[in-house]
Amino acid sequence: MRVLGEPDAPPEGRLRTDTMAAEVPVSLVFNGIAHAVMMATPQDLEAFALGFALSEGILDDARECFDIEARTLRAAEAGLPEGVDATEVSLTISTRSFERLKGRRRNLSGRTGCGVCGVESFAGLDLDTPPVPAREWIDRVDLPTVLRAFEALPARQLLNAEAGAIHAAGWATLDGALTDVFEDVGRHNALDKLIGAMARAGRLGEPGFVVLTSRGSHELVRKCARLGIAALATISAPTAMGVRMAELAGVRFWGLCRAPRAVLYAPGAAPFAPSKEELFEPAGRAL
Predict the structure, then answer these.
(1) Can you tell me the distance from the alpha carbon of 252 to that of 106, in angstroms, rounded to the nearest whole number?
(2) Of 11, 51, 244, 253, which has the fewest CB atoms closer than 10 Å, so is most exposed?
């Protein structure tokens, strides 16, 4: 590539080599039926496919996925322009999950809609998310803990350091230590990779929180809430809908996490604390 405008460079610029982020079409196929094509960074794709299936409500549990297989498709085989190879990820899922997926596909087929996110009615936005169970540790996801996790994140963003244009999703413990980091050109994809990897390892119930190098949009909050993830922190600002989703789902939501400050937009669901009246109920009456 040619770089222009550098100090002391000739008018025609300087020729340099550059490393760019990979962005390839990834087809997600469930029991032989293609469901979605996503543009993604071609690594950790099995984790991505499983995380997508869980966070989009196709699967209720990772055990409903019996097998995942990824294969590369040459451009000609995929019907794409020359040099644009693709990846197909095939998942074998339970009959119950597949029947639910087929019903969803029938509801979405041929939609023209109101223009909101491509669905034909407001109900189709699927914004209803069951509240996340209250966690007794939720207040430990505080400012120092969140900033500690973000301080450690750049060193784990290996792809972004090399190519730029890459988002990261990480998992942090209650002391702010990062245990897992996944990268992708898409912020949603990075989160799905993290969710899928943790689900495969049986770790989704661990105390901790998600950190993201992105804005806090409602889809990210919804993905976390669906999996019972109780806390989320993003480096950029949230959207108003993202904050509202966090309030409704009981997700602790930090945004604009740039040391030395961060903003707590939603506190999360606190453990049940009995009122004074309940504490002094007459003996023999259940609280």
Answers:
(1) 35
(2) 11
pLDDT at 115 over 70: no
The C-alpha atoms of residue 235 and residue 233 are separated, in whole angstroms, by: 7
Is residue 26 within 8 A of residue 87, CB to CB? The reply is: yes
Neighbour count for residue 241 (Cβ, 10 Å): 16
Same fold, 24-124 and 138-267: no
- What is the chain's mean pLDDT, rounded? 88
pTM for the full model?
Answer: 0.88
The CATH architecture assigned to 24-124 reads Roll (3.10)
- Cis omega (within 30 of 0) for bond into 260: yes
CATH number corresponding to 138-267: 3.40.140.10
Spatial distance between the Cα atoms of 165 and 25, rounded to a whole number of angstroms? 17
Asked whether 273 and 280 are in contact (CB, 8 A), the reply is: no
Which of the residues are catalytic? Answer: 114
pLDDT (tens digit, 9 = 90+) per residue, 221-277?
Answer: 999 999 999 999 999 999 999 999 999 999 999 999 999 999 999 999 987 644 445
